[in-house]
Specification:
There is one protein chain. The protein is of the alpha/beta class and about 190 residues long. It has a single domain, classed as FAD/NAD(P)-binding domain, CATH 3.50.50. The chain has four helices and eleven strands. Strands 1, 2, 5, 6, 7, 8 and 11 form a seven-stranded mixed sheet that branches. The chain has a two-stranded antiparallel sheet with strand order 3-4. Strands 9-10 form a two-stranded antiparallel sheet. Strand 7 and strand 8 form a beta hairpin. Helix 1 runs parallel beside helix 2 and helix 1 runs parallel beside helix 4. The radius of gyration is 15 Å and the shape is globular. The N and C termini lie far apart (about 40 Å). Bound molecules: flavin-adenine dinucleotide. The site of flavin-adenine dinucleotide has 34 residues, from helix 1, strand 2 and helix 4.
Length: about 190
């Protein structure tokens, strides 16, 4: 049983997994290797001079794994309510999680399959998005959405930021108090 299952390991999903795993939550990150970010050359990501999209995506996955997240290659085909949370089924096997974060980029098939409320997108080339409140909550309690699929501006710094924001909200809900993750520079 995972505390948090994250679908999609692009900037939004991997960033959420970094915060979730680093907070000590049992975190599963499932990805089908279809990130649009892998076609990007990025020079506008604060703090990073320049980076190829594939390197950014790989670095993000490795950071999440460094803090103990489990990374699984696979395509999520369904998410169903279960006694303790949700059963997340991929094309190979299924997993149990208390909370689920959808960070599936431009892909809405899982959201539509599970009947989440969707609305028209407002960003260029983004047709439909998952309807969320400001915290990332969707129309199904316990399922959250982050990044492009949640309608934020389609830029790595913003989708990664949104993934972190939503993860902090999920961690805070699990902890029953607001969560902060600050490391201090060693003297
Ligand atoms: C050509 C190009 C150039 C770009 N250049 C820049 C730039 O210079 N600067 C900038 O800031 N941004 C740029 N971007 C945009 C940037 O890539 C996106 O903004 C953004 O970061 C998307 O992040 P995301 O995590 O929301 O989605 P993605 O990066 O698309 O990640 C979504 C992930 O979800 C996974 N997924 C989806 N459905 C499932 C499923 N059912 N099961 C399992 N996994 C699933 C996919 O495999 C994918 O890995 C560019 C994009 C493109 C296409």
């Amino acid at each position: 049983m995972y505390d948090i299952v994250i679908v999609g390991a692009g900037p939004a999903g991997a960033s959420a997994a970094i915060f979730a795993a680093k907070s000590g939550k049992k975190t599963l990150l499932i990805d089908s290797d279809q990130s649009v970010t892998k076609r990007a050359w990025i020079e506008n990501h604060y703090g990073v001079n320049e980076i190829a999209g594939p390197d950014l995506v790989e670095t993000g996955k490795n950071q999440a794994k460094k803090f103990g997240a489990t990374l699984v290659d696979g395509k999520v085909v369904n998410v169903e309510k279960s006694d303790n949370g949700f059963r997340v089924a991929t094309d190979q096997e299924s997993y149990e999680g208390q909370h689920v974060i959808l960070a599936t980029g431009f892909l809405l098939d899982v959201a539509e399959k599970i009947g989440l409320k969707t609305i028209p997108g407002t960003e260029p080339r983004v047709k439909t998005i998952i309807d969320t409140d400001g915290s990332g909550k969707t129309s199904v309690n316990g399922i959250w959405a982050a990044g492009t699929v949640a309608g934020v501006s389609v830029h790595t710094i913003i989708t990664a930021g949104d993934g972190a924001k939503v993860a902090v909200n999920v961690i805070s809900e699990l902890n029953g108090e607001r969560y902060v993750d600050h490391d201090v520079l060693k003297a």
